[in-house]
Amino acid sequence: MAVAMSSTCPGLYCGRMMVNGSVEGECGVCPRGERANLQKVCERCNESPELYDWLYLGFMAMLPLVLHWFFIEWYSGKKSSSALLQHITAMLECSVSAVVTLLVTEPVGKLSIRSCGVQMLSDWYTMLYNPSPDYINTIHCTQEAVYPLYTIVLIYYAFCLVLMMLLRPLLVKKIACGLGKSDRFKSIYAALYFFPILTVLQAVGGGLLYYAFPYIILVLSLVTLAVYMSASEIQSFKNLIAKKKRLVVLFSHWLLHAYGIISISRLDKLAQDLPLLALVPGPALFYIATAKFTEPSRILSEGGNGH
């Protein structure tokens, strides 16, 4: 019985090293890129990420880009030409950062990554699962059990920040002449605030975001579309197609709706899941169909007539 007890490791994430085909050493943390298997032996992760893992990484990569676009639009005023160039630059920064991040992650130099996979929520928070077999001494087995999903996002944000600081100030100084000196760099200052917030969000809530992001995408894209259409006073198809910008915003939201639906369904059963994409235009069509019935001035006038 004593032999059986000593041959296994306590805790969920502790393991022994495999050296020259034999298991050696004491129980402890597995090296980066490895994970303890069922026999509590550290095993190199060679799996490819699942579709859902890629969708999660895509969501985390989209966050800074969407925030860049929002603040560029917010602070650019009427200078649409300068805003467009900044939008394109922001997209270029995030795209290059994503490619470089994939290239520097193992296997280095390839646009693919090897992954340990996610089995449960606790995989994201291994620091909370360090065992204390004798209730006195703790065996520290904190590691990246979801390798590389946790750190790859933080590396990506670092590259985004560096590229933004290299490219954007020069561009803004050249093209944003119509804006005041204080207004020119406000979209960059906003990024200096939201990047640390995104980093903390990933560091603390990465595991929760991994399971919740499809629903976050759907809810936020529905709310922002409704707010935009209300603020732009779009109440008919004629209003909608009056400006190209409105169509761009609409199609962007439709892409987000589709992304959310694909993330929830994971396309496990194509014949069953693909028809769900037909729901994508639904919210916009519903809004236009019902907007005239919920016009505040009409409701107030009818209420006044009733009295």
Automatic annotation (TrEMBL):
One of its GO terms (biological process) is ERAD pathway. One of its GO terms (molecular function) is ubiquitin protein ligase binding. Keywords: Membrane, Transmembrane, Transmembrane helix. InterPro entries: JAMP. Coiled coil: none annotated. The chain crosses the membrane at residues 54-72, 147-167, 188-205, 211-231, 247-264, 270-289. Pfam families: JAMP. GO terms for cellular component: membrane. It comes from the Eukaryota. This is Jnk1/mapk8 associated membrane protein. It comes from Seriola lalandi dorsalis.
